[in-house]
Amino acid sequence: MLTGLPALLRTHWRILRREPGYWIVTLGLAATIIVVYGSLLSNPSSPELGFALNDDSPVLAEAVADLDGIDGIDIEVGTQAEELQALQDGDRWAVLVVPDGVIDAVGRGEPASADLLYEDDDPFQSAAARGILREFVADLNEGLGVTDNLSLEEIVVPGEKGIGLLGTIFPGLVGMSLMFGNSWAAATLVGWRQLGILKRLSSSPVNPFTIQIAQFSIFAILSALQVTVLVALGQLLFDVHIAGSYLTLAAVAAVGALAFMGIWYALASFMTNSAGFFATLNLSAFVMVFLGGSVVPNDDVPGWLDPLIQALPLTHLNDALRSVINDAASLSSVADQLLILGAWAIAGFALSSRLFRWAPR
Amino acid sequence: MPALTVSNLSKRYKDVVAVDDISFAVFEGEIFGILGPNGAGKTTTLEMIEGLRKPDVGEIEVLGIDAIHHANRLKERIGVQLQAVALIPNLTVWETVDMFSGLYRKRADPDSLLARFALEEKRDARVNQLSGGQRQRLSVALGLVNDPEIVFLDEPTTGLDPQARRSLWDTVRELAREGRTVILTTHYMEEAEELCDRVAIMDHGRIITLDTPQNLVAAIAAERTIECTLTANIDSDRLAGLPGAQSVHSIDGFVTIATTEPTATIRGLLDLEATEGVAVDDIKVRSATLEDVFISLTGRALRD
To answer: Are A57 and A130 found together in one domain?
Structure first.
C-alpha cells in the first residue's frame, strides 16, 4: 500500500535540499524569532509601581512592604500628587491610589474601591504593572478574609506624549509599509530574470536602467498610495494625530521609499529565484520590524543589540517618521536620519546596477 | 554582399569549449541554417551574434556594425527568437506584442503580425493559456515586432506539429522574399534541406562543413544509404568490412550503411546469416540526405 513512500520521501528531501528559501525561512526564522523575542522580552526592566496611600491602615502598609520585598519590582510610596506627577513624567508604570478609610470599610464587609492609574504609551509596561496590582488587591482581599470587597477602578491617563498606544505605534506602521511596499519592484526583477523574460528583453535595445525606472515608478506610486490610505484611515477612524506637516511627512516617506527600493534591488542582485528573494526579504524584514521599533518600542533592549539596531535602516526611518508625526519635527531636525537613509538608497542602487544580470547565473 | 561576417569566434564556459574558432558569412536575403546536434554550439553562436553573449575571441560584423562593441545599435535592426520561450504569464497576446514593439523605434503593425502567425483569435487570451505551438508562434512573431532586416530563429519549429512546422517554413520563406536575411538553427535535417539556401553543420563547437544542401548531398551522391534491422547486434567493424561499405552507424540492431555498391553490400548483409547467424529483418535502400552527410563527417547520428 505504501510502496512509493520511500521514493517520494527521497524526492521531497532532494527538492528541499536544493531550495535555499526553505532553509532560510524555517531554520533561519526559528533562530531569529528566539533571538529577537528573547532579547526584547527576557530581561525586562523592573516594573516601577507607585503607591499613594491615603489610608494609613497597618494591614495596607504591610502588604506594600511584602510586595516591595519581591525581587524585580520597584515600589515607590508617596503622596497622591507626587505619584501622579511621576506617572505623567513616565517614571512609573502604574500608580495605585488607595482612598482613606477603605481598609476599615472592607474589613466591615462594605464594598470599596481603589484607583489604578496607568499611562498608555507602552502597552507592555502597563499590562505588566496592571497584572501585578490586580494580584496585589486580590491578596489584600484574601488577607482581610473577604472576596472582592475591594475593587479596582482602572483609569488610563494620557502618557508622557499624550498620544496613546496607536499614536506611539503609528509611525512604525508607516515605516513598515514603506519597507514592504517598496520590495515589489525588486521582486518583479527577480521573477522576470528567473522566467527568462529579462534575457528576452536583453535582445531588444532596452537598457537595464529603463527597466528599473519603469518598475520603480509604478511601485513607488503604489507605495505612496499605501501610505496615504494608512494616514487617511488612521485619522478618519482612529483619530491619529499628525503633528508635523504633510509635506514633511511626504518627504520623509519618499526618502524612506528610495532607501528600501535600493536595498531590495541590491538584494535582488544576489538572488536567482523568487523563493530565495522572499525568504531573505521576510527574514530581514522580520528583524527590522521588531528591532527597528515598528511594533514594539526598541528602547528597552539589551545594550549589545544597540549597534545592530542603529545599523537597521528601518530604525532611522521610524525615528524620522516618529519625530514628524508625533513631535512635529521639521525636515532639518530629521536631517541626520534622512542622510543615513539617503546613503542606504545610493549604496543599494549603486550595488544593484553594478551587479545587474540579464540571466540567472 | 554579406549581411554578417563572423571571424575566428571562440567561446568557452569553464571547462567546456562551446564555440571553437568558427568563421562564416551570411549573405543578404539568404536563409542560412546552422545544423547540428544538441550541445554543438549553435545557440551560443547565435547569441554572440545577437549581442547577448560576449565572445572570448573573434570579430562579428552585422549590417556593417561591430556586434561586440555596438550591440545596442544593432539590436534595433535585428529580430530575435530565443530557444526558451519566455513570456509574462499575465499579459494577453496582444499586450505582449504591444510591449515588445514598444521597445523599438521602428515598429511593425501588431495586428497584421498576429494575423501572419494565425494568432488573431488568441489576441485577447492570456499567454499562459496558449498551447505549446501557439506560444512558439508568438515567440517567433515577437522576433518581427521591429520589422527587422535580419531575423534570428533558434530552433523555431521545436515542439510544433508537422502541419504547423510546414506553415512556419512558408512564413520563413516569405520573410526571405521580403528581402530579410534569416538565420536559423535546427536539429531537423529535413528542415535544413527543405528551407535553407546554405547550411553550416556544427559539431563540438566547430563548423565541419558549409555549403548548399544540394552540394553537401552531392558530395556523397555516389552513395546510397542502406537502412536495415538485424536480428542480433553485430560488431560495427564486421559491417564496415562489407563490400562497398563507406561508413557504418549502428544502434540497437538498427544499422545505417553508406555504400557505393548497394547490390554487393546487400549480398554481404544477407550472407551474414550463414557466417554469423545474424539475419536481416527489414531492409531499405535510399539516396543520401543531410543526415547521411552528418554521419559520414562525424561517424555519429545527429540525435545520438
So the answer is: yes
Residue B89: list chain A partners with CB under 8 A: 195
Nearest to A203 among B75, B84, B88 (CB): B75
Give CA B196 to chain center in angstroms: 9
Nearest CA among A345, A344, A339, A230 for reference residue A294: A230
Residue A30 CB partners (closer than 8 Å, separation 6+): none
What count of other Cβ atoms lies within 10 Å of the Cβ of residue A206?
Answer: 17
Residue A361 lies in a domain: no
Is residue A129 in a domain?
yes
Which chain A residues are closer than 8 Å to B147 by Cβ?
none
Q: Which of B91, B109, B165, B87 is nearest to B133 (CA)?
A: B165
The answer to whether B72 contacts A207, with C-beta atoms less than 8 Å apart, is: yes
Domain region containing A139: 44-156
Q: Which of B75, B86, B146 sits opposite A197 (nearest CB)?
A: B86
Q: Are strands B224-230 and B254-259 parallel, antiparallel or unpaired?
A: antiparallel
Residues 330-359 of A with CB under 8 A from B: 358
List the A48-53 sheet strands across, edge first.
Answer: A74-78, A48-53, A94-98, A112-119, A150-157
Shared domain check, A326 and A202: yes
Domain count, chain A: 2
CA–CA gap between residue A90 and residue A50 (Å, rounded): 11
| Contacts A200 to B, Cβ<8 Å | 82, 86, 142
Instruction: Give me the tens of pLDDT residue by residue for chain A, a chain 361 residues long.
Output: 676 777 778 877 787 787 777 777 677 777 777 777 667 666 557 788 898 888 888 888 888 888 888 888 888 898 888 988 888 887 888 899 988 888 888 888 888 888 998 877 777 778 888 888 998 888 888 888 777 778 888 888 776 555 666 777 889 889 998 999 899 889 989 999 999 999 999 999 988 888 888 888 888 888 888 889 888 888 888 888 888 999 999 999 999 999 999 999 999 999 988 888 999 999 999 889 888 887 777 766 777 888 888 889 999 999 999 999 988 899 999 999 999 999 999 999 999 999 999 988 7
Beta strands of A2-47 (E only): which ranges?
none
Q: In this complex, which of A201, A205, A358 lies closest to B72 when CB atoms are compared?
A: A205
| B169: contact with A, CB 8 A cutoff | no
Sort out which chain A residues have CB atoms less than 8 A from B100's CB and list them.
204
3-state helix, strand, coil split of chain B in percent (to 5) is 35, 30, 35
Beta bridge partners of B117: none
- Domain containing residue A81: CATH number: 3.40.1710.10
Interface contacts A/B by beta carbons within 8 Å:
39
Whether A204 and chain B come into contact, CB under 8 Å, resolves to yes
Domain shared by A261 and A174, yes or no? yes
Answer whether A248's CB lies under 8 Å from A330's CB.
Answer: yes
How far from A213 is each of A71, A192, A196, A281, B91, CA to CA, in Å?
59, 15, 19, 21, 20
